[in-house]
Amino acid sequence: MSPPLWRLYLRGAISNSLGGAILVGVGRSLGLSHHTLLAFSVQLAVFLVHGLPFRSEKFYDLSGSATHFAVVAYALCSPARQRSPRQLLSALFSLVWMVRLGTFLFLRISRDGKDGRFDAFKPCWLTFLGAWTIQACWVSLIQLPVLLLNTRDDAAPAGPLDAVALALWLACFLLEAAADNQKFTFRSDPANKERFITTGVWALSRHPNYCGEIGMWTAQALAATSAFLSTGDAQLLGAWGSPLFTAFLLLRVSGAPMVDRAGEKKWGSDPAYRHYVANTNFLLPGRPARPAKVE
Predict the structure, then answer these.
(1) DSSP label of 158
(2) Same-domain status, 10 and 141
(3) A Pfam family name for this chain (predicted)?
(4) Residues 107, 196 within the same domain
């Protein structure tokens, strides 16, 4: 049963107000007002041109990728006197991540036809708009390390923390890419329609894709911290808002909780699923679960 329309309008008003406050607050406090305005403008444009007229979320994830590209490209156009390897690598890694994830998400929704998460939002335009406003916040917050690094001069030499950041980013990028590819392939097989994945990196963690995602933005924040240690620019520490927000979003709001609830609803009474959940690490990859004993 759908909630009453007044409740949807209330939710929409709250989500849009909260999203707007976050965008304004981040922009003003960290000197990124133009970037947060750009993020919201791209999201609003796609919502008005396609999302609202067709009540469709088909281009939601693709518009997120376009917004990431827009704000990073704009940051690279800032009048810095020189670009350090740290800055260029930070931007490059962000764009590589964006292209891979955006392509994967678009292929997934093209295969599935819809994203069930939006079913409760689409009946009310204000609530539906809230989803796009929140995505503008997500882009602005998650890109904080890249934006903060690339909107100021950075002549600081690379140090040990940069090497740690580089290794961590590469490892986590490969982990997330492997997790997404393995699950996409698994679900594309009709024989697996009623099954859950326990192979590949999914044997090591119940949420390896989220582990990779959080790890990549932690690496970006480490790179910004390395610049802070050399320059003393305290605003660079705002980069830690990215991995903290990512972890909160994926572990407490829309990531793991939604996946786990869906799994419990579908396979909660399956002994094999109970064994997998009880014996597989929640986030960090670990030792694969031993096969369940057959009674």
Answers:
(1) P
(2) yes
(3) DUF1295
(4) no
Given a contact cutoff of 8 angstroms between Cβ atoms, the answer to whether 121 and 127 are in contact is yes
Instruction: Give 43-74 pLDDT, tens digit per residue.
Output: 999 999 999 999 888 889 889 999 999 999 99
Q: What is the CA radius of gyration of the chain?
A: 20
Would you call 61 exposed, middle or buried from its count of C-beta atoms within 10 A (0-12, 13-18, 19+)?
buried
Q: Are 274 and 212 contained in the same domain?
A: yes
Q: Cβ distance 80 to 63 under 8 Å?
A: no
Amino acid of residue 1: M
Inter-CA distances, 294 with 81, 238, 271, 272, Å: 67, 52, 10, 10
Q: Has residue 1 got a pLDDT over 60?
A: no
Residue 211 lies in a domain: yes
Amino acid at 127: T
- The tens digit of pLDDT for each residue in 78-109 reads 776 677 899 999 999 999 999 998 888 888 88
pLDDT tens, position by position, 193-213: 889 999 999 999 999 999 999
82 found inside a domain? yes
Does 219 map to a domain? Answer: yes
Angle between helix 5-30 and 33-46 (nearest 10): 150
Q: Are both 122 and 169 inside the same structural domain? A: no
Is residue 276, in this structure, part of any structural domain at all? yes
Residue 268 burial (CB count, 10 A): 11
pTM of the predicted model as reported, rounded to 2 decimal places: 0.89
**Total number of domains in the chain:** 2
DSSP state of 152: S
11 lies in which domain range?
1-155
Distance between CA atoms of residues 189 and 173, nearest Å: 25
Find all residues with CB under 8 Å of 82, minimum gap 6, and list them: 153, 154, 155
Percent of the chain that is helix, strand, coil (3-state, to 5): 75, 0, 25
